[in-house]
Automatic annotation (TrEMBL):
Lineage top rank: taxon: Bacteria
Upper classification of the organism: Bacteria, Bacillati, Bacillota, Clostridia, Peptostreptococcales
Name of protein: Uncharacterized protein
Amino acid sequence: MKRLTGFMGLVLLVTTIVGTLTYSQSTYTKAENQMIEFANKKMEQIYSVKIDKNNLRYSIGEQVQKNKLKKIQDKSNSEVVAITATNLEKLKKGNVLSYSFKYDFKDKKVISHDLKFLK
């Protein structure tokens, strides 16, 4: 279990770094913006927290193979979607630092989720 948690943390870190380096608000497609809204809502429900979309930077992709993601073009065609979010601006006690979220739209279920906040 510790190995899995460590591995998930590493994947989150790498994805966040890559996503942050290529970040630009205008680069999100309509489908990606819909996915961000969906993931934020689900994470708010699961963890009973308030997520401010504007304070987070996102990395989003459709899983096409075990370790391979592609850019989301159309939400309706996506099966498994992975999203990571990182807060790089407002680091205050109680704020969400980062989260990872993976959802299967075909089976309509959450595959995995993790949230970190500043204590």
